[in-house]
Amino acid sequence: MLLARIVGTVVATRKDPRLESSKLLLTRPVDPTGVPEGNHLVAIDTVDAGVGDTVLIVSGSSARLAAGMKDCPVDAVVVGVVDHVDVSE
Fold it and tell me: Sign (positive/negative) of CA torsion 38, 17, 56, 7?
């Protein structure tokens, strides 16, 4: 599971028919303090997230287990919107 911030949207005029009603979001992984790290990632939105939201992303085989994604060609799915992160060191 990844912690990430939504930084934009992706528009695809042609895509697999199983993804036609899905919203594609451009995300950037962040560390627990919100500092960007790693490369951007395109993920399918299942929770109505928007630009600026901090979200939880599952990838790989876990992505296909997310709600409504069974048998879909996906590798990353937004499964939660994060309200707050507490870090105790």
Answer: positive
Query: In whole angstroms, how far apart are CA 12 and each of 20, 21, 57?
Result: 9, 11, 20
Question: Dihedral sign, CA of 62, 63, 66, 68?
Answer: negative
- Number of other CB atoms surrounding residue 54 within 10 Å: 18
Classify 62 as helix, strand or coil.
helix
pLDDT digits (tens, 9 = 90+) for 48-71: 999 999 999 998 877 777 767 777
* Structural domain span for residue 50: 2-81
- The pTM of the full predicted model, rounded to 2 decimals, is 0.89
Give the number of domains in the chain.
Answer: 1
